[in-house]
Specification:
A five-stranded parallel beta sheet has the order 4-3-1-2-9, with helices on both faces. It has a four-stranded parallel beta sheet with strand order 6-5-7-8, sandwiched between helices. α10 links the parallel β7 and β8. The chain contains 13 helices and nine strands. It is an alpha/beta fold. The radius of gyration is 17 Å and the shape is globular. The chain folds into two domains: 142 residues, Rossmann fold (3-Layer(aba) Sandwich), CATH 3.40.50.1860; 108 residues, Rossmann fold, CATH 3.40.50.
C-alpha cells in the first residue's frame, strides 16, 4: 500500500518531495486538484466535496495513509473526513493534516510572537488560533490573508511572491517568526530562510516539518508501517495538466511523472 498526498494544486508536491528524501523506501501517490484551484476563496461545502473526491481517488489507488497537504482543506474539511467519512468507509486507513504538526513546531521554537500567512479560508477559519489556544504558554499569533500568492506560485512568478512575503516581514516590528500557512509557499522557504537567517527570524515551513512528523508517526504505528509498499515508486495525478506543470515537476522531482 501507498502513502498519499492531496493538495489543491502543486504546493503539496514540495511536501511529497521532502518526505521522499526523508523516507525514500515507500511508495507514494499524489493528487493535485489543479482544475479547481485555488481553494482559498471557495465555500466550505465545495472544499469538502472536492477534497473528498481527491481522497477517494487516492484510496482507490491503494493508499493506506493520506496527508492532506492543503491548509485550506485542513481547517474544517479534514476533521469531517476523519470523523465521518473515514469511519464509515475506510476505518482501517488514516488521513492526516498539516496544521497541528505546524503548531507543534511553532511551540518548539519558543517564539513569543509570530505571523501566519495563508489563504482567505485558512485565515478566516482561525484554525491555527483554535489549536494554539489549547496550550497554556502559547505565543501570540497575528494572521494575514495573502490570496494572491497561490496564483503567483502556480504560474511560477516566484520573484513576485517572494517580494510580497518579504514586504510583510519587513513591515513588522514585534514578530520573530512567520508560518508559511500554505504548502504552495514552501517553494520560497529556502530563499526566505537565507535572507532572514542573520536576523534570527524563523521561517516555519511545512516542507521541513512534515517529513519528520510522518517518520515519528510511522514509528508510533508499526501496524500501519508494515503494510506500506517499499518499492520507492512515485506517481502523480493532476486534474488539469499544462506545460508549466511539466517544468515544475521536472525542476522539483527530476522528471515528469504524470498518471494519465
Amino acid at each position: 500500500m501507498k502513502i498519499g498526498f492531496f493538495d489543491s494544486g502543486l504546493g503539496g508536491l514540495t511536501i511529497m518531495n521532502a518526505v521522499t528524501k526523508e523516507l525514500p523506501q515507500y511508495d507514494y501517490e499524489f493528487y493535485g486538484d489543479t482544475a479547481n484551484l485555488p481553494y482559498g476563496d471557495k465555500k466550505e461545502e465545495e472544499i469538502f466535496e472536492l477534497t473528498k473526491r481527491g481522497i477517494e481517488h487516492l484510496f482507490a489507488k491503494d493508499c493506506l495513509l493520506i496527508i492532506v497537504a492543503c491548509n485550506t482543506a485542513s481547517t474544517e474539511t479534514l476533521r469531517k473526513l476523519q470523523t465521518e467519512y473515514l469511519q464509515i468507509n475506510y476505518p482501517d486507513r488514516r488521513i492526516l493534516g498539516v496544521i497541528i504538526p505546524t503548531i507543534e513546531k511553532l511551540l518548539e521554537e519558543r517564539i513569543e510572537e509570530a505571523i501566519l500567512i495563508g489563504t482567505n479560508r485558512t485565515i478566516e477559519s482561525r484554525k491555527y488560533h483554535i489549536e494554539l489556544n489549547k496550550y497554556t504558554e502559547a505565543p501570540k499569533l497575528n494572521s494575514i490573508a495573502t490570496p494572491s500568492l497561490v496564483p503567483l506560485i502556480e504560474t511560477q512568478k516566484y520573484d513576485e511572491a517572494y517580494a510580497q512575503i518579504c514586504s510583510i516581514i519587513d513591515s513588522r516590528t514585534t514578530e520573530k517568526g512567520i508560518i508559511l500557512g500554505c504548502t504552495h509557499y514552501t517553494t520560497l522557504n529556502a530563499k526566505l530562510s537565507d535572507r532572514y537567517r542573520e536576523d534570527n527570524f524563523k521561517i516555519i515551513s511545512q516542507d521541513e516539518i512534515i517529513p519528520k512528523k510522518l517518520h515519528e508517526y510511522l514509528n508510533r504505528h508499526p501496524e500501519l508501517e508494515k503494510r506500506l509498499g517499499k518499492n520507492s515508486k512515485r506517481n502523480i495525478y493532476l486534474t488539469k495538466h499544462s506545460e508549466i506543470y511539466d517544468k515544475f515537476l521536472a525542476d522539483l522531482l527530476g522528471g515528469v511523472f504524470i498518471d494519465d
